[in-house]
Each structure stands twice: as C-alpha cells, then as structure tokens.
Amino acid sequence: MSQKQTPLFPLRQGRHTRQAHVDLPEGTFEEEHARQGFFGRTTHLYRLHPVTDWTRIEGPLRPHSYDLNGLKPSAEEAIRASMSGSTEAAFAPIRLLYNQDVALHWVAPSAMDFFYRNADGDDVYYIHTGAGKLETTFGVLHYATGDYLVIPRGTTYRFLPAAGDQRYLLIESFSEVTIPDRNQLGPNAIFDPAMVDTPELEAYDATPREWAVHIKREHAITKVYYPFNPLDVVGWKGDLTVWRINVKDIRPVLSARYHLPPSAHSTFIAQNFVICSFLPRPFEEEEGAMRVPFFHSNIDYDEVLFYSAGHFFSRDGIGAGMMTWHPQGIHHGPHPKAIPLSRTKDRTDEVAVMVDTYRPLKATPAAELMENKNYWASWK
Ligand SMILES: [Fe+2]
C-alpha cells in the first residue's frame, strides 16, 4: 500500500495549470486521476463538464447514500441478516458496509449487563451522539459526543451510557489500528499525543453473581460465565490499552494557498484502510486556489463518508447522521451548488469521518434499507 514508485517526469498536453488545484484554465473542471489514495502517481485532467454530469447509470457501480437516522422497525429481518456477532438488545451493532479488512456498523447501545470482547478485530467507535462510561479490562473511560474510542482486539468491555440518544459509528478493523507518521509536521501536530486519555482503574462492581462475557470470534458469539466480575484487574503496566481522542482536540493541517488532499486529514491507519477526520477549518484564502474537493475517481480506494455535524458544504442534501459510499471506478466530486457557494464563505464547520478502503466494500441488507436510491442523480 505504501510502496514508493519512481515518479515519471510530469507530461503535459493542452490547457492545464502547472500547480494542481490553483488557477484552473477558464471554464474547466479539474479531475484528479491518482493511485494509492492521494499520495501515489497522479495526473490532473481539465474537462469542459463536471465528470459527475451523467444522464443514466446501468449496472451495479454507482455512488450510494444512506440515512442512518431512519432505522425502521419493519427492518428487523434485514437487520438480523446484517448482524455479525452480538444481537443482544443492549448491544447489537448493525453491520452496513464491509470487506476483509474493515466493517462499518451503526450501534445504539443501552446499559449492558454483560461484557463484550471482540476477538476478530480492533473496535474504533466514533460517538456521533451520546455520552457515558466505558468499562474495560484497563479501567474506566468517560466519553462524550465527538470522541473516538480505540479498543484493541481482545479487550473485555461494556458500555454504560448516560441518559439520552446514543448513536455510535463502529469501525471494526481486522488489523491493528495505529496513527500515521507525522513526518515533518513533528510529533505534536494534528493532535498532541498528550491529549489522549486512557482508562483509569476504579472500584468496580464486585457483587458476587454470575457475570457473562460475550466473545465474538469469526462473527459468532460464545458466552463465557464467571462467578466474579471479570474486570477484577487491580493493576497493569504496558503500552497496549484503550484510548480516547476527541475531534475537538484534532487540529487539522491546512494551507491558505493550496487545497490539501484528504490524506492530510488521516487520523488512524490500519492494513488496507485509513480513517480521516474532516473538521471545522478556514477555507483556502488565495484567489485562484480551489476550495472544494476536486473531482476524482480515487481509483485504488472505496470512499465512505459519515457526516456527523455542521454544514457539509461540498454535498447538497446531506445532513447529520447520513453516510455516503463512493466505490472505486466511478467519479465523485462536489455538488454543483458547492463550487459557487464555497466562494461566499471563509470557513467550513463540518465534522465528518471518512473511511477509505483499498479493497471493494459490500453493502448489507440493512444498509440497503436506509439507502436513498436517487443519490446517483443528485449532481444534476
Ligand atoms: Fe473522494
């Protein structure tokens, strides 16, 4: 995924700009054709029409949009068919999109009277709405809206949410989740590792009763019972633990003169996928510098965007709690109104989580129930 390729000398044909994303030739729309997300070999194409101005699409490849706010009660059968693992009322992640490397789920937990352990992968939660207490083998962590919770594979845990609506996006990774190298930005950029919170050991419920741990292994649940609370850890040392960072503590890198690619907003990295955070930030200032994402086909990655808060300036008709999936091979880019609109504003207040996957994703029946089937035509 990250192997270096010898760059070719940039070749040129016809009308183009020498500095990508700046001073596009009059009347053109820029398209980026790039490998390896946004850090491989790249060519920019200057077109007379937005490449998303199709009239019809026949066949399975198309952009998708899902409204996760609308889980319908009638959807029970489809939801069950989409489950992988726990189906307990208090903790029943609904799988939406998945491949061999990663699975995205929508979870609305209530207070769990059992513990959960994922033996298949690391669990990264993004808290879209809600707050509460996460009890783990390593101690207790309090969480709130905008938190990412990173739970290493094999950790025993349960959610004890506070009152109110709980809606979490679960990004289940079948390889270890780490943070990307900051290189020349230095170790304290984007977020200072000192902003990370880890669990603290507290007095736990030592009631002698039967305690259950629901272990997910190859997507099947095994229940193991103990006559004592299995969170009976009284001390630990080491560098493998649960951790938390809030999106408010992530300080996006930006340039006043150049639209940085999404890869500049990478928060987590794992095998064959990356998690990026798009956060409130000023737009590019300089006249001529593009302010909206360029059209691209991102040919090596499927792109999923979960929209959590704020105004999503590049996508019309997309609100909080919605998710889009743009598979590799078909183009995507800003909606028509976004380009002139971006010129009238000086900043974006969006909070969105992006998951870019190297291998193609598949949608579950539950995702299809929440799909807006006309999304492909929304660029018209
Ligand atoms: Fe993209």
Q: Given the C-alpha coordinates, what overall shape results?
A: globular
- In the CATH hierarchy, the architecture of the largest domain is Sandwich
H/E series, N to C? EEEHEEEEEEEEEEEEEEEEEEHEEEH
The number of distinct structural domains comes to 2
Query: Count the strands?
Result: 24
Mean pLDDT: 91
Could you describe the 3D structure shown?
- The chain has 2 domains: 165 residues, Jelly Rolls; 175 residues, Jelly Rolls (Sandwich), CATH 2.60.120.10.
- Strand 13 and strand 14 form a beta hairpin.
- The strands form 5 sheets. The protein has a 7-stranded antiparallel sheet with strand order 15-10-7-12-5-4-24. Strands 3-21-20-23-17-16 form a 6-stranded antiparallel sheet.
- Helix content is 4%, strand content 33%.
- By secondary structure, it is mainly beta.
- The mean pLDDT is 91.
- The structure holds fe (ii) ion.
- The site of fe (ii) ion has 4 residues, from loops.
Provide the descriptors you would attach to this structure in a database record.
mainly beta, Jelly Rolls, 2 domains, 7-stranded antiparallel sheet, 6-stranded antiparallel sheet, 3 helices, 24 strands, binds fe (ii) ion, RmlC_Cupin_sf, oxidoreductase, HgmA_N
